[in-house]
């Protein structure tokens, strides 16, 4: 099973330098994962960015390309570096890659999570390294190869690219306490031009939403790796509070879903109309 689904990519043509992505809305669990998992499927689903791909697939004037992951983030998290793991997470260890664990792997939520969102052990016993490497080849490399190709093609055609990397966040964390409907992450000013994020923030505030920057989410691997604004390569992570579009327990769309979708479509369309002026 591949780990990419492309929407609005017709005749292999890129219509815009603005690319949209949803790396955590996938819900595919391979059979070998399910046989080894210590977590029940309803609990795993709580980790998914449910319906984020639907939220951003609205009435888009430029038919912006949308890249969504197919695999669940509980199996392979494409918003981590491919070597963000510990050797001793696997038995036997992964041999093909040299591990470089970050704070995420040290907390059990590296590229192949070994702990779930409820902080339970993900697997009945340690995952064999061969299985882990197979998943990385099938899921991580496939997703990033597709994303790389899209961004490079956009850069070659337009001389720049902008990636809106969409995610969702639980409402019961710091966001609810601080009334954040959306958190914009730009790696503390390092992944996107200031004119761009200022425009995005203003548009969302004018839509009646409460916006925060970089707290508690400043951007993951995708934002850090693909955002190089001095080179004309811009990336922003957009975290949406699930409670504004979703029943978090049942994972059904709530009454505000369509309105939230309209707000995001308006943001994307207004950004398209203004992005060249914002570049200068």
Question: What's the mean pLDDT score?
Answer: 95
Radius of gyration: 18 Å
Tell me how many strands there are.
9
Main sheet makeup: 7 strands, mixed
| Outline type | globular
Instruction: Please count the helical segments.
Output: 9
Q: List the strand order in the largest sheet.
A: 1-3-2-4-7-5-6
Strand percentage lies at 5-15%
Helix content: 25-40%
Give the low-pLDDT segments: none
What structural class should be given to the helix and strand makeup? Answer: alpha/beta
Could you give the order of the helices and strands? EEHHHEHHEHEHEHEEEH
Termini separation: 42 Å
Any chance you could write out the topology, listing elements then pairs?
Blueprint: E1 5-7, E2 18-22, H1 31-36, H2 41-45, H3 52-55, E3 66-68, H4 103-106, H5 129-158, E4 161-169, H6 174-177, E5 182-185, H7 194-206, E6 211-213, H8 221-226, E7 233-241, E8 246-247, E9 252-253, H9 257-279
Parallel strand pairs: 2-3, 2-4, 4-7, 5-6
Antiparallel strand pairs: 1-3, 5-7, 8-9
Helix pairs in contact: 7-9
Main attributes of the structure:
alpha/beta, two-stranded antiparallel sheet, 9 helices, 9 strands
Molecular structure report:
- This protein is of the alpha/beta class.
- It is about 35% helix and about 15% strand.
- It is built from nine helices and nine strands.
- The protein has helices spanning about 30-35, 40-45, 50-55, 105, 130-160, 175, 195-205, 220-225, 255-280, and strands at about 5, 20, 65-70, 160-170, 180-185, 210-215, 235-240, 245, 250-255.
- The strands form two sheets. A seven-stranded mixed β-sheet has the order 1-3-2-4-7-5-6.
- Helix 7 (about 195-205) links the parallel strand 5 and strand 6.
- Helix 7 (about 195-205) runs antiparallel to helix 9 (about 255-280).
- The longest helix has 30 residues, at about 130-160.
- It is globular.
- The N and C termini lie far apart (about 40 Å).
């Amino acid at each position: 099973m591949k780990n990419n689904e492309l929407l609005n990519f017709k005749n292999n043509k890129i219509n815009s330098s603005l690319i949209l992505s949803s790396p955590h809305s996938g819900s595919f669990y391979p059979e070998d994962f399910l046989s080894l998992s210590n977590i029940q499927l309803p609990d795993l689903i709580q980790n998914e960015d449910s319906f984020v791909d639907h939220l951003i697939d609205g009435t888009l004037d430029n038919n912006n390309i949308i890249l969504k992951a197919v695999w669940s983030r509980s199996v392979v998290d494409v918003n981590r570096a491919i070597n963000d793991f510990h050797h001793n997470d696997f038995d036997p260890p992964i041999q093909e890659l040299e591990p470089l664990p970050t704070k995420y792997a040290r907390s059990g939520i590296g590229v192949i999570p070994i702990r779930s969102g409820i902080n339970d052990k993900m697997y009945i016993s340690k995952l064999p390294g061969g299985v882990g490497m197979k998943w990385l080849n099938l899921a991580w490399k496939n997703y990033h190869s597709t994303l790389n190709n899209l961004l490079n093609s956009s850069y070659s055609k337009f001389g720049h690219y902008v990636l809106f990397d969409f995610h969702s966040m639980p409402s019961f964390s710091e966001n609810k306490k601080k009334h954040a409907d959306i958190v914009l992450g730009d790696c503390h000013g390092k992944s996107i031009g200031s004119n761009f994020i200022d425009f995005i923030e203003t548009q969302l505030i004018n839509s009646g939403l409460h916006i925060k920057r970089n707290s508690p989410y400043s951007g993951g691997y995708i934002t850090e790796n693909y955002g190089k604004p001095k080179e004309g390569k811009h990336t922003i992570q957009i975290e949406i509070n699930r409670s504004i579009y979703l029943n978090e327990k049942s994972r059904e769309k709530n009454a505000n879903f369509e309105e939230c979708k309209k707000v995001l479509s308006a943001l994307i369309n207004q950004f398209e109309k203004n992005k060249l002026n914002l570049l200068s």
